[in-house]
Amino acid sequence: DLDECAASPCKDHQYCLNTDGSFSCKACDASCVGCTGEGSEKCKTCASGYVKEDERCTDIDECNLPEKVCTKENQDCVNTSGSYKCVCSEGFEDNDGTCVQT
User: Fold this and answer.
1) 1, pLDDT greater than 90
2) In this protein, which residues make up the domain named EGF-like (predicted)?
3) pTM of the model
């Protein structure tokens, strides 16, 4: 078997999987910018919103950072994979970017 992966035939956001007589390009984990294999522990570098922790890229919980990321009144932070979103607290709704009581 010829290792076609030695020539790095895949795109930046993929890794090469050598198979018998061939190869395939597989997508890197969403937490990676470039990777050497499957999973968040094979990242070359971590994507924005992720940090290297115990040899793998893990999501940063922006909602638990010392500095608040959702600063408007009556607004809550919701952590998402690689990011976060600001939503109006229960009993409030968004009205042109302001959370007003419903």
Assistant:
1) no
2) 59-100
3) 0.79
